Amino acid sequence: MPKVVDHDARRRVVTAAAAHLISEGGVDAVTVRELARATRCSTAVVSHYFKNKRELLVCTFREATDHVRTRLDIVFARDPGDLRGVLEAVLPLDEERRRDWSVWLAFWADAIADVELGGEQRQRVRDMREIVADVLRTSGRAPERVDAEARRLLTTVIGIAVQASFDPEEWPPDRQREVLDELLPIRG
Amino acid sequence: MPKVVDHDARRRVVTAAAAHLISEGGVDAVTVRELARATRCSTAVVSHYFKNKRELLVCTFREATDHVRTRLDIVFARDPGDLRGVLEAVLPLDEERRRDWSVWLAFWADAIADVELGGEQRQRVRDMREIVADVLRTSGRAPERVDAEARRLLTTVIGIAVQASFDPEEWPPDRQREVLDELLPIRG
User: Fold this and answer.
1) B111 contacts in A (CB within 8 Å)?
2) Nearest CA in chain B to A98
3) B112 to chain A nearest CA, in Å?
4) What is the distance between the alpha carbons of residues B9 and B158, in angstroms, rounded to a whole number?
5) ipTM of the complex
6) Tens digits of per-residue pLDDT, B5-55?
7) What is this structure's pTM?
């Protein structure tokens, strides 16, 4: 019987390895050889799943974005109006979220002048803003305030995350939450 | 008489060309050949000024940061308490400032896992926060509020700038100012 290979799972193993390599050594650290070493696959197998480094980087970027969706699912299952939970799903508060930010930051350098990659980043932020707006609506915020407030909240989250990525000492989790708290209404 | 070459000026010509190339084509577009073409120097001259691409990138990053200092000097000469002017010196409100952000974003990918480059970015943000805090103090803000407020303002500026860099349509100058305005006290 031929061995059944779960290709999606294999691809995710490779993108997960790529995310680790990026967060530890930057994009240049992502090589077929290092990916093979990290995934214990042959270089042929690793190369098989991605046409080129660009495609691998895009998939790694999307995978980091999928992590946010997974975290959001958990938040929403508990409480669909948990605004703080939604925003914390994006903040670099633990190792996984810090790694996701490394991947996004690495991606931005290529996305600056690349229509397709720039579009991915643009859409990611627009989607996230829409999610925050939905939560605000669910929580009964006045409709005419929702868009501006979602924009303001996400702007703060991105500003915190960028600073925290390069200055974790100055931005421990408590401080990230503190700055966010100033913007959040108190919930009863 | 031998021709006198202003080496600092020459270096700035090369970093300015690098900034243009980055904003139009990303870091990969920065090659000795393209720099030579853009600066109308020989490839030998271009190579002479920078040990390697990393050094060129660091200098281009610092040059973008120097632009902020120049803009701040102009703001301070007019009004040392002009908080909005100080923050707008960093927002991507025109072509030069958008290009500066392209350079910083390009730099971040390399700075993620590089102690020296990461330190440059960290220090740049810390310095800028200190400048904002100074303006707040000058404007008579209560001392115990200054640090938190400077942190909040700079966080917003960074969050706006990152989004505007990838989504200029969604973030025209008026909207950038609008989001900033919500945080600024009204000045008489």
Assistant:
1) 166
2) B112
3) 6
4) 30
5) 0.94
6) 788 888 999 999 999 999 999 999 999 999 999 999 899 988 898 999 999
7) 0.94
